[in-house]
Design a protein that fits this description.
This protein has about 290 residues and is mostly helical. It has one domain: MetI-like (MetI-like fold). It is about 75% helix and about 0% strand. The longest helix is centred in the first third of the chain and has 32 residues.
Length: about 290
Amino acid sequence: MKRQTFHAWLMIAPSLVLLVAFTHWPAIVTMIDSLYATPRGSRPPVFVGLENFQDIFADPVFIKALVNNAWYAGVTIPASIVIALLMALAVNTAIPGRALVRMAYFTPTMLPMIAVANIWLFFFTPDYGLFDQIAGIFGFGRHNWLGETATALPAMMIVAVWKEAGFFMIFYLAALQSMPPDLAEAGQLEGASRLLYFRKVTWPLLMPTTLFVGVNAVINAFRLVDHVVVMTRGGPNNATNLLLYHIYEVGFRYWDTSQAAALTMVLLAILGGFAALQFGILGRRTHYR
């Protein structure tokens, strides 16, 4: 048994080394950097303790980015999951052109993030964009979707849901197709309606997939930076400034690496809290076969 254990550790050693080198060690270094002041020129870094964290929580731009990200996550996560599940249920049935429908649902996922941002940037362009062209047919005036604080963040949410729902659909579709057909036949014999069968059989069996999709949706909601850079650069008036973009600006525009490290630790704490909450709540209702 000891020899088998040694061989097992030997087999996973390369992957473990890469994981520690590119994930855990950078996180530890970032945590250490967050406790020091940013070195300037010949001045070495000075230990400042939690001062960087006090500064970021006193920064109104950080608070704005945090609130924006909370709204962004609160809308895009459930919307992406619900739409993905509905699409998977639709293409799992015998409908005409099912293969084409599946491909159409999954196509946005295959597009690069920058390409998606540029496509939707054209859609949102005032006067010439697709949305304004359609609105003009019905007599509505021009609207600067990305240039007004009231519509900029919702516009970014639409782009995210459009791209992510097809990706999550693939996992739900695979889970639906792996379910034993005997369960559906038993439900029909018992006279269970489609809604009752979904609530009592399909949904509980989809919980492992939902947990996986939920964790990925949370990560995606807090790591968005590509669309922000291309479409709005955090504007107008920080209306679309999200946490990762704020970290990018602090670290690479203002070259305050220690402040960026502290912001990164806050982001990691938020993601860790979400992960613990998801595994704590959904994990109890998840049954693996």
